[in-house]
Amino acid sequence: IEAYPKKYKKYKSLGKVVKKEFSGHMQQALLFIYQGANPKHDRTGIYRDAKFIYKSMEGLGTKDYQLIWRVIRAHWDPLRFESVKAAYFQRRKTTVEYHVAKETSGSYKKLMVELTKAGGGVRP
Length: 124
Description:
Blueprint: H1 4-7, H2 14-21, H3 24-37, H4 46-55, H5 64-75, H6 78-92, H7 96-103, H8 106-117
């Protein structure tokens, strides 16, 4: 990490170097690792996980598979999930539960909202 500024002086971050030098799955994997270890945020991946939960719901239509995968993955560790929900609230000024309820419907909505509440919930 310390050597990259010497070789790539025109880039401000390691993430930009990865984007330039790699492509496809390798680029995605390296960026995932970098975003989790980025000292700009928390170095634990909590900010990254909150960001990816948001990205699964942003724009036109919810990316259901991604949303399910990310919520269930975060749900496995209740303490970490509470931190992810707190990071989400800090960044988005709304709760994960509210956003999930807004973006889903029916039985799917009930299931996803209950999963997001299961860790005890972060209340504003």
